[in-house]
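Please fill in the sequence for the structure shown.

STRUCTURE ENCODING:
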């Protein structure tokens, strides 16, 4: 009798699976483009025309693009760690969360995700992985254990 009761308790205490709605890849690309125009372009403009003397000085500089990309990465990581969304992702109702816990990322995890994105975009293959996966994960999502969900 005890065994049956234990078995019934085991069956009733199973966690229910939460149905996750994955963000579609075209919407993720639109969100990235929106972020580029809302965050990265103002940084580039500020560095080019306020700090440096203009376009030619920016093109001649090796450090200026590195500083712009670093600032963008830090701002991106702050947005993801605080709310799980950047302005572009918020416009398309997308949120970046940890795959296992479905919670916001830490600042360091978000920064690692940005660095992994740079790597993924550099080798281009990483950006084509979502076309072959049901959950639309890119290479940087696989490396960092994150997922972009629709909210």
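FILLED IN BY: designer on duty
SEQUENCE:
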């Amino acid at each position: 009798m005890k065994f049956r009761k234990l078995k019934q308790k085991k069956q009733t205490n199973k966690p229910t699976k939460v149905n996750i709605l994955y963000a579609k890849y075209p919407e993720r690309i639109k969100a990235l483009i929106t972020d580029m125009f809302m965050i990265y372009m103002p940084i580039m403009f500020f560095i080019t025309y306020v700090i440096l003397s203009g376009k030619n000085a920016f093109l001649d500089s090796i450090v200026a693009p590195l500083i712009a990309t670093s600032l963008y990465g830090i701002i991106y990581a702050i947005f993801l760690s605080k709310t799980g969304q950047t302005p572009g992702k918020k416009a398309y109702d997308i949120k970046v969360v940890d795959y296992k816990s479905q919670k916001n990322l830490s600042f360091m995890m978000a920064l690692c995700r940005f660095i992994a994105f740079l790597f993924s975009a550099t080798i281009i293959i990483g950006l084509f992985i979502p076309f072959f996966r049901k959950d639309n994960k890119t290479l940087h999502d696989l490396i960092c254990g994150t997922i972009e969900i629709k909210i």
